[in-house]
Amino acid sequence: MSVLPAVSARRRRADALARGLLALGAAVAMLPLVLVLYYLVKKGAGALSVSFFTSDPTGAFLGDPGGVRSAVLGTIEIVALATLIAVPLGVGVALYLTEYGRASLFGKAVRYFVDVMTGVPSIVFGLFIYITLVLSGFGGGFAGWKGSVALALLMLPVVTRSAEVVLLLVPGSLREAALALGAPRWRVVARVVLPTALPGLVTGALLAVARAAGETAPLLFTSAVVSGTSYDLGQRMNSLPIQIFNDITQPSDRLVERAWGAALTLVLMILLLTVVARLVARRSRLT
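The structure corresponding to this sequence follows.
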C-alpha cells in the first residue's frame, strides 16, 4: 500500500497565503455592502413606525410630512407589472437561444442586441417611453403602466442573459433521454429543462427585480410624481425611488429622515421578496 508523500512546509505556507488573500478579497468586497446596510439602518430605522407605512405623504414642508404608503403600494404595482412583462419574455427569448436558435444567424443577432440593451442607461429607456407613449398621448399622459413598460425594458436583457446561462447548464443528457422516450421537444422543455433550471431562473428574475425596483430615472419620465395612493395603473403613481429622490434634496430634516426610511423599506422589501422566492423555488424543486 503506497503512502502519499507529506506536503512540504513551503507548499503549506503558499496554501495558507493564498487562502488568506482570498479571504481578504472577500472581506474587502463585502465591506461596502456591510457599510451601506449599517448606514441605512442607522439613518432610517428611526423613521419606521406604524404611521410611516399607513399614511401618505402630506406634501407639507412644516409639520407632519406623512408616510410612504402610496410609495410602497406604487412600487409593488409598477414592479409587479414590469415583472409580468419582462420575465416571461426574457425566459422565452432565452429558451429560443438555447433550444432552437443557438447557432442560427438570427439567434446570434438577438444575442448581440440583448447584450447591447444590457449596457443602455436606464434614463434612455425612460426617455424612449416618454417620447413614444407620454408625449404622443397614447393612453393619456403620465401613468403607472408606462413606468412598468420602461422598467420591463430595463429588466428584459438581465432576465434573458441570466436565463440563457442557466439553461445552458442543464445537462444535454437529460434532453436526450427525454427525446429518446418519444417526448416532443416542447414537452421536454416544459417538463425537463425548465424545472431543472428553475432555481437559477428565479435568481435571475430576482436580480432584474432588484435592479428595477431601485430605478428612479425611468419613473420620472413615465409615472411622474403624486402624493396620494392610487391603485389605478392608468393614473400617475408614487414610488419609493421617486419619494427618496424628492425627499433627500429637501432642507427639512424630517423629510430627509423619511427618505432614509424609504430607502431602508425598499431594501427590506427586496430582501423579503428574495427570501420568499428562494423558499418557493426550493420547495418546488423538492416536490
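The chain has a mean pLDDT of 86.
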